[in-house]
Amino acid sequence: NCNALPTAVREGAHWDPGMKRYYIEELQCVNKMVMRFVAEVEKYDPDAIIVIHGDHGPAFTVKWHKPYAAWTNAEVRERFGIFMAIRAPNACRSWIYPSMSPVNTMRFIFA
């Protein structure tokens, strides 16, 4: 069960420093679930391409009362940075590169 976050946070309340602990606990739980899922996929299809992709980063340092134009570079990188992990067969790995964008990830998958 990965419901470590208090209900107010799960329903979209803004972050405060006290919530970081809950976020980390929930993240650790979800990571374990994802690793079990990946192991199951690999068991049935060792050559499967697996992409795990986030839509945005956390917002522990973001000052929500400020307009976006006033955010610092660090706040922008934190909130708008995304997580992406790709597991691919050896024959396909040469097509993956560190700066691959989500759009090009889809091109890689469907190529």
Descriptive notes:
It is a single chain. By secondary structure, this protein is mainly alpha-helical. Helix content is 41%, strand content 7%. It has helices spanning 7-10, 20-44, 73-80, 102-110; strands spanning 50-53, 84-87. A two-stranded antiparallel sheet has the order 1-2. The longest helix is centred in the first third of the chain and has 25 residues, at 20-44. It is flat, with a radius of gyration of 17 Å. It starts with 6 loop residues before the first helix and ends with a helix.
List the helices and strands and how they pair.
Blueprint: H1 7-10, H2 20-44, E1 50-53, H3 73-80, E2 84-87, H4 102-110
Shape: flat
Give the strand order, joined by hyphens, for the main sheet: 1-2
Flag low-confidence runs.
Answer: none
Question: What is the number of helical segments per DSSP (H or I, 4+ residues)?
Answer: 4
